[in-house]
Design brief:
Order of helices and strands: HEEEEHHEE
Radius of gyration: 15 Å
Number of helices: 3
Largest sheet: 4 strands, antiparallel
Oligomer: single chain
Shape: elongated
Helix content: 10-25%
């Protein structure tokens, strides 16, 4: 596509973000859903803000995501130029790295821009 470069495509994938902390899980075989309605980032092409809701669902193995650190992690995206697709896949990668869940599903539902509403989903492992 004219005007889009490899730099745009990779933007934000290696941005330094706060670490997601975890705490020891006490129970097996249940799932957690976390809804984050205040996601914002910057479009790497236009420089305009993007808004959306990110939902993280997972089955913890030994660790659970610590919510304050997760909030700080997501808030850090406000300063990052990153496409929706990259943000959702980066979040999945970072959550899996931090907590090593049985399975994880990250869904980004992004506000309409130019009349187009986008939903991006990335998955790790399989739900039982």
């Amino acid at each position: 596509m004219p005007g889009y470069t490899q730099r745009h495509a990779q933007s934000g994938l290696k941005a330094k973000l706060p670490l997601i902390e975890c705490w020891p899980n006490q129970f097996p075989g249940y799932e957690i859903t976390i809804v984050i309605p205040e996601y914002t980032a910057i479009c790497p092409k236009t420089g305009l803000p993007d808004f959306g809701t990110v939902t993280i669902q997972y089955e913890p193995r030994r660790l659970c995501l610590e919510l304050k650190s997760l909030k700080m992690y997501v808030l850090a995206y406000r300063q990052v130029g990153i496409f929706y697709e990259n943000a959702v896949n980066r979040m999945l990668k970072d959550v899996v790295k931090a907590a090593r869940p049985v399975w994880c599903h990250v869904r980004g539902e992004f506000s309409s821009r130019g009349g187009i509403h986008s939903v991006v989903e990335a998955k790790h492992g399989r739900r039982r």
